[in-house]
Fold:
Amino acid sequence: MSKILICGGGVIGLCTAAMLGRDDHDVTVLEADPADRPSSSSQGWDWERPGVAQFRQPHNLSSRFRMVADQELPGLTDKLLRAGCVWMDFFDPRSLPPTITDRAPRLGDEAMRFVTGRRPVIEWAVAEMAQAAPNVTVRRGIKVRELITGASALPGVPHIAGVRTTSGEEIRADLVIDAMGRRSPACEWIVAAGGRSPNEEAEDSNFVYFTRYFTGKQRPRRKGRLLTPMGLFSILTLDGDNDTWSVTLFTSAGNKAMRALRDTATFHRVVMACPMQAHWLDGEPITHVLLMAGVLDRYRRFVVDGQPVVTGFAAVADAWACTNPSAGRGLSVGLLHAQVLRNIARRHIGDPAEFSREYDVETERQVGPFYRNQIAADRARIAEMNALAEGLPVPPPNPVMARLFAAASEDADVFRGVIEIAMCVSLPQDVVARPHVAAKLAELDGRPLPPNPNIIDRDRMASLLAG
Structure:
């Protein structure tokens, strides 16, 4: 049995703890926020979590999250359902785009169903699971100040042997896992412990998000895509738990006129102008318009020039790499990363140097493509938004992805491939290589693609914002 310390008690930190506890490791989770989970899931929305900046912003689970959870954390899906989360099925004939005539089910459709809800309720269910998990202790209200080192496992490379808290307590461990999310100070801690600075890339994609939550006796029926580009903005509609749902508009932070979306009347006017989403306003608002901006895209690599910067340390999920939440995949990719960590720990927990090297390799191989694909999509979308705002020609879209989305509007199997991409089950490069999909894309090669019917032009947008 190894002693493992996890810094950060959010969804991924607690899921990682439960996985490792089931492997008979002695796991302690240190969470800086002092408030324990409420006594019932119905109180989850009121949970105070100041350490999670996006706690009440939209979140979505996906098919990949459920697949990993069912494999690594049996029972979590049932806990989410008992907390009020809901099943989603994009292959239900009622959810298929009206332009698709082939509505027959396919073998394997069932595997793509997933359960989702609002972040506070999801975290409540995960915290309940972690509290009951074997070999796991969760300590809340404990802030870590720095890493402490021990005997090196690799010549010239510091070995992390635990942490020191702000109260001065030293907590020793065989492995320290950083699950502190976007705000993680890991790079500074590693340098202070004598390690090389990890490679880090950071940039703000300059999206700004406006969200409002609703409740009602019946959740809206999905008519369009989960995420729909509308020209100067995109609209994201997400089902929530316990008869709730959310509508999010996000746009370029550089477009100052769009700040008018903070006003509830303006927000509603713009949503009403979206024909496939206007009915998502048919409920009782339970929040004002929530604003989120200044979210960094950031990537860190803890092996530099083939050598770990430290051993005895691993960063997981957003503490490793994070993107703007425009596609709502953060928790799903994070759980996949936790699964990778568990598998590496099973093989190399007793060999810190090999653990660090293989964790880096498998992170890059299995998780890295999701990060890089999302960054590319975000860069293309913000460039399009900025060009439209300035009245400039829009940069040409990625030709392969443009044809893929066009084909998906008519072909049931291509549509399924697009949903697999959105649900973190498959990568775009793998989907477009499938013979049927490749043939459909070839049919569109050289042909003009239909214009996006959802575009709201600058003049109409200005009118909507002005009221």
Q: What stands out?
A: Residues 64 and 425 are 5 Å apart (CA to CA). The chain has a mean pLDDT of 95. The radius of gyration is 23 Å.
